[in-house]
Write a structure and sequence with these properties.
Length: 150
């Protein structure tokens, strides 16, 4: 039984108000536009109960491959300013990680500065090799596209 801890921060600025960026996280239909796996993956329905104590889940994976599952619990939500949640990831029947994630939003000129910090523990020999941070950066690129298309 092993653990490997890591922390990363992503700092992005979006050409949208903090309220609009917050809604991209809070509104289930809006979040479904950007919070998903690669286009070629099969996926299950996304569920989002965006409130303190609420849960979120998403599953998918390569066609014919193992299912990747994300399950989150929201601990702190300050509208237009902050979101704190914890989540675990599974591949098949194996829990590969548990994370605490903080999203901070602040006005930046006519847009929004988003600072995302994730503290993760990878479990039992799972070697992330930076893929979590790369995947999160890809999601934030999708968030930018979704904000522009709305």
């Amino acid at each position: 039984m092993t653990t490997n801890h890591t922390t990363f921060t992503i700092d992005r600025t979006y050409a949208a108000t903090p309220a609009r960026v917050f809604q991209a996280w809070a509104n289930p239909a809006f979040k479904a536009k950007w919070f998903n796996g690669p286009d070629e993956w099969a996926s299950a329905p996304h569920t989002l109960d965006f409130r303190v104590g609420g849960r979120e889940s998403l599953a998918g994976g390569p066609k014919g491959g193992q299912v990747h599952r994300y399950d989150a619990l929201y601990f702190d939500i300050v509208p237009n300013q902050r979101i704190v949640h914890a989540y675990d990831m599974h591949i098949g029947d194996n829990r590969i990680s548990v994370s605490l994630a903080t999203v901070e939003l602040a006005p930046a000129g006519s847009g929004t500065r988003l600072v995302y910090t994730e503290q993760a523990v990878f479990l039992d020999g799972f070697d992330d090799a930076g893929s979590r941070e790369r995947g999160t950066r890809d999601l934030f690129d999708k968030l930018e596209a979704a904000l522009k298309s709305q």
